[in-house]
Amino acid sequence: MNEYRLHHRGNLVRMEQRYTRLAESYLNLILTTSKTHIDRRILRYYVEIPYYFAPLIIKTWYDESKFYRYGTSVSITGTEHFTTIVWRSVKYVGFAVQEINDMIHFVAVFEPEPSGHYRSAVAYAHLINFRLKFCCGQNEYHEIPHELNILKKVGRCGFSNRIWRNFLNEINEYRLRHRAGIVKIKSEYTKLAEKYLNTILKTPKKYLNLRLLRNYVGIPFYFAPLIIKNWYDERKKYKYGTKVAIAGTEHFTAIVWRNVKHVGFAVQEKDDTIHFLAVFGPEPNGPKLFSSNVKGRSYFSSSRFLVKT
Q1: Of 18-22, 104-108, 142-146, 226-230, minimum mean pLDDT range
Q2: Looking at residue 82, what DSSP letter applies?
Q3: For residue 47, which of 106, 192, 232, 280 sits 20 to 30 Å off, Cα-Cα?
Q4: 273, 119, 124, 66: which is closest to 132 by C-alpha?
């Protein structure tokens, strides 16, 4: 890919883990979602090919250059992969690959995305909404608390308002997998989250109490749907049965901590960055309480809830 970019006076691109994780999320959704329900835009940089042709994927995309007209101001059908590969503003890439029955499934993510972040985020939002709404058997509906009206709080990010509402569903889905009860939004925790977030955004880092940052994240707005999933994915580093905290897994253990009953969220958008903070109550990750509060995944539990969106 970098060789082709140099041919077209583009800079070298680098792999970054966060974009690889996003590519893996897209690929998992593609492979687990019925084709009749998948948003076709998510398939733009996806290919399914026999394993013996896998080395030709990037070359095949680049060969679309034969159909491209230089100097055009619009997209030319059938050349989107080529233009993405050599797009000059792209700085980072992420790849995901799975082999199933001698077929290679490949997805690439480009950053900044040539066709715009907004559409990709919407595509992901549709898919995650679909998964959360239709993965369940029986559903218990609860009215969404007023505190989660993110549309009023983040302006342009209102397109993903349902994603923010689904954060509660997503946390509860993960909790049920680990034999923990569902949590509910509580206004006092929401107010506390907003207070902490305001303090973080207004206080110089050298004066900031680092304890406030435990469940805070600043992330580009188009990655907002991945916040809770990224936290849950910390489970890969966790050792069940331990009695002490394991560095790098604190978000995962907070999400599935059995003694947690309520949560509160706060979110602000600044300069295309989403600042998100969660408060869990009672406070999780207490010393020597991990073995009784963090249980291994149960494959027989099912979601029985949904927040009305």
Answers
A1: 142-146
A2: H
A3: 232
A4: 124
- Which has the minimum average pLDDT: 96-105, 202-211, 218-227, 246-255? 218-227
Q: What is the mean pLDDT of residues 142-150?
A: 39
Phi, psi of 102 (to 5 degrees): 65, 10
Residues 53, 107: Cα–Cα separation, whole Å: 15
Is residue 25 within 8 Å of residue 121, measured between CB atoms? Answer: no
Q: How confident is residue 145, by pLDDT bands cut at 50, 70 and 90?
A: very low
pLDDT reading at 283 higher than 90: yes
Single-letter code of the amino acid located at 304 = R
State pTM to two decimals: 0.52
61: which 2 tokens?
A: 């995309």
Q: Which two tokens stand for residue 5?
A: 């970019």
- Angle, CA 295 vertex, CA 292 and CA 296 arms, to 5°: 150
Q: Going from the N-terminus, what domains does the chain have, and what CATH number goes with each?
A: 1-132 (3.40.33.10), 161-293 (3.40.33.10)
CA distance 237 to 247: 9
- Interatomic CA distance for residues 300 and 183, integer angstroms: 20
Q: What is the mean pLDDT of residues 81-90?
A: 90
Sign of CA dihedral 123, 185, 229, 89: positive
Paired tokens of 26: 């897209």
